[in-house]
Amino acid sequence: MKERKISRAVFGLFTAAFLCCASAFVSLAEADAAKIQATIQSCLINSDKNSVTVQADSNADMTGTDGVLYLVELQPYQNNLAGRTDYAASSAPGNKVTFTFPLNRNTAQDRLYSKFVIAVWDGTKYIEISKPHYITNPEMVAANIQPFNDPLTKKGLNIQLNMLGDAFELGVKHVATNISFHQILGQGIDYQFDGKTYHFDKNAINSYDETISALSGKGMTVTAIVLNGWNDAAPNLIYPGTKKNANAFYYMFNPATQEGLDQTRAIASFLAERYNGSNPNHGKISNWIIGNEINNQQWNYMGPKDIHSYVQAYQDAFRIFYTAIKSTSANDRVYYSLDYNWNNEIDHKLKYGGKAIVDTFNSIANEQGQMDWGLSYHPYPCPMIEPEFWDDDQTGLITNDFNSPVINFKNLTTLTDYMAQDPLKSPAGHVRHIILTEQGFTATSHTRGNVAQIQAAAYAYSYYMVDSNPYIDAYILSRQVDAPLEVRSGLSFGLWECAMDRGDDIVATKRRKIWQVFRDIDKKKYTLESSEFAKSIIGIGKWSDVIPNFRWRALEN
Fold first, then answer.
1. N or C: which end of the chain has fewer CB within 10 A?
2. Can you tell me the distance from the alpha carbon of 22 to that of 20, in angstroms, rounded to the nearest whole number?
3. Where in the chain is the domain with CATH 3.20.20.80?
4. What pTM, to 2 d.p., does this model score?
5. Closest CA to 465 of 417, 533, 411
6. Which Pfam families does the annotation name (predicted)?
7. pLDDT in tens, 185-244
8. Quick one: residue 302, left, alpha or beta (phi over 0 = left, psi -120 to 50 = alpha)?
9. Angle at the Cα of 125 from the Cα atoms of 120 and 127, rounded to 5 degrees
10. Phi and psi angles of residue 134, each rounded to the nearest 5 degrees, phi first
11. What's the pLDDT tens digit per position in 307-360?
12. CA distance 143 to 273
């Protein structure tokens, strides 16, 4: 750390005669400095993995300053330079400016998670002249550079751990599991991170080890959904000022205090390291979803906020996870998730449109350091209590344009068309990774009773849509077995029926038609035969008539 020192000898030259002019001098200096603008273009770890270079554009008018540009480090929770005299690097002014400084990886001064601003010195204090910018290539220091585990098909399922044999018979390639972020602190496992020791709950971690290793050990690509519930014993994990809310299932992560930042990044780093695939007894997580359906604060609560404040707080947390994950396993993928309300159910305080979340997240990232983020989406039927989605436009909530209130399977290409726009592409210029991680079709209807045939037809239609769309990587169906709690609400999503006399315990009883369709849908030899029954239900002659670029078109009669 370097420090901008003010010479006592210089101050000794000032006399009482000049003090009356001090306030005017400072105001003039501030006005001059305010004219100076800088934009950080890149903030990258160098190939030596030990240093960082920042490149910026700036004007060269340094009137009212000491003639030097300073790069100042800030923690994610810091929003100004009040009282600061230290700096990470300095440079002579110019239209193109470069700063280089040490990364200090794995020390108490680790800068991997920091943000940086350019400032000028007006004689008494720093004045910021750029927006903050983060390091955007944490993968440069990753020990694990194995390629992403990309399965042969997109077929996925939320499964019961005690039914792994059935999942294997079904040919499941993608699977999701939840991680309760708020239950990891505890005792039994000590973890060293940036010079501090953290203590984690051994029983909780062992349970995750068992689940994740069982899934990845079968060759499945594992997606982890990291959820932050309320835990009175871990208050620093909750965003400051947040009150417990009976309507909230999960809460905003906390990067906004020193304690919250320290604990959050230590847990994130621990999870990334433990599930990097190096230990088969721990397993491998390849996809990480931070929070759930963030356009609805019921799943990510912090209290009423305008969308920019809300998304800024979320992105600050997302970036911690992203940095921890990518700096461990360079090719893991990190996502945020949305429900199907694209421009619907919006109050601008607790509920926001998915489209607005995407736009705001991307805009903030463009300014503060773009990441290779991905989108996890949940295109349930509308309404969820009926399995047909092909007539969902009758609700008046679905159109084939970017202003559609809802985007689900009926207009799924609207989502991928939106994400394929140039301003939303990844830093490498590609359409971002999109995965469908929670959606299902009920086999029971409030008005018609058993509609298992329609459920199976809906799955076949939706799978073909996804399989033929080049911009969607995975489709994880919910779920292998009905959940009694959902069944009592009229939602029978399972490939299997469940026992309804075991409370909320999930116990499989009988396969549905969808089981066989799911098993065969991605097999060239059987796929069209397995889905033939669905055509009359949907009212079509050929799949290629309703699915653009239908993958199996050459096999159709």
1. C
2. 6
3. 152-378
4. 0.94
5. 411
6. DUF5722
7. 999 999 999 999 999 999 999 999 999 999 999 999 999 999 999 999 999 999 999 999
8. alpha
9. 40
10. -100, 165
11. 999 999 999 999 999 999 999 999 999 999 999 999 999 999 999 999 999 999
12. 10
Closest CA to 461 of 377, 534, 528: 534
Mutual angle of helices 513-520 and 527-538, in 10-degree steps: 130
What are φ and ψ of residue 394, in 5° steps? -65, -15
Q: What span, in angstroms and rounded, lies between the C-alpha atoms of 3 and 17?
A: 30
Q: Tell me how far apart the alpha carbons of residues 28 and 65 are, in angstroms, rounded to a whole number.
A: 10
In 3-state terms, what secondary structure has residue 99? strand
CATH no. for 32-135: 2.60.40
Residue 244 DSSP label: P
Residue 57 structure tokens: 């554009």
Helix axis angle for 513-520 and 452-467, nearest 10°, is 20
Mark out the alpha helices in 297-435 (DSSP H runs): 307-326, 354-368, 412-419
**What span, in angstroms and rounded, lies between the C-alpha atoms of 134 and 366?**
11
Q: Among residues 292, 288, 221, which one has the least CA distance to residue 251?
A: 292
- Cα separations (Å) of 167 from 250, 380, 519, 536, 545? 29, 22, 9, 29, 32
Tell me which CATH code domain 152-378 carries.
3.20.20.80
Residues of the chain with CATH 2.60.40: 32-135
Q: Which residues are CB-neighbours of 442 under 8 A, at least 6 positions away? A: 384, 385, 386, 387, 451, 455, 490, 491, 492, 493
Phi/psi region, residue 219 (left: phi>0; alpha: psi -120 to 50; beta: rest), is: left
Strand partners, 57: 39, 96
Residue reference for tokens 């991997």: 112
